[in-house]
Design brief:
single chain; 231 residues; CBS-domain; Alpha-Beta Plaits; 2 domains; 4-stranded antiparallel β-sheet; 23% strand; elongated
Length: 231
Amino acid sequence: MLIQGWMTADVITIDEDTSMMKASIIMKERKIRCLPVVNKKGEPIGIISDRDLKDASPSKATTLDVYELNYLLSSMKIKDIMTKDLVYVKADETVEFAAILMLENKISSLPVINNKGILVGIITQTDIFKVLINITGVYTGGIQFAFSLEDYPGSIQECCDVIRSYGGRVVSILSTREIAEEGRRNVYVRCGALPDNKLRDLVKELEEKFVVLYTSKDLIDEVEKRRFRVV
């Protein structure tokens, strides 16, 4: 999947002379966690995150009164605290590559530029999560089977045929050799809901014919309930 299909193209930007207070207000009002900093040509020259603003803000233990504090926040410029060593991607690169750049550089967002170096979008960790949800089909298929299969042509079809024979609608198939044993690959098959009795019989047959690493049923209906509420 290409970045251009998942990035935010209508990017909110600021210039380097924007005050720290104004940047903070923009983030809160727009409910965003970072702001690209661009020059007059539209080229990214930095990026500021909510973490940068928090780190640069005076401690709650400060002796400054509210007027002094507001003056400090309004006078401090973004250019003094923004990250200037930018890591970037291009719109025609893959989301997977963007994820690698975020992981390796321990950052949560990337400016997207065109071939002229002009900012055309931004992609964030949240966008990466959306891609993961999309390619796995978790909203439409709540059951996942994980297999350790022999690495030969047709091995995936064999286990999928068994799933389909019980009425299981295969939603997605993911495969990797990186964490599998030599000569094998780990395969993750997600399918739609099945009645409990059919699921039980299906799992039994799968375990008899293949090496099943696990079977997991995602309780999508409980998403809104998964919160700790302190009273």
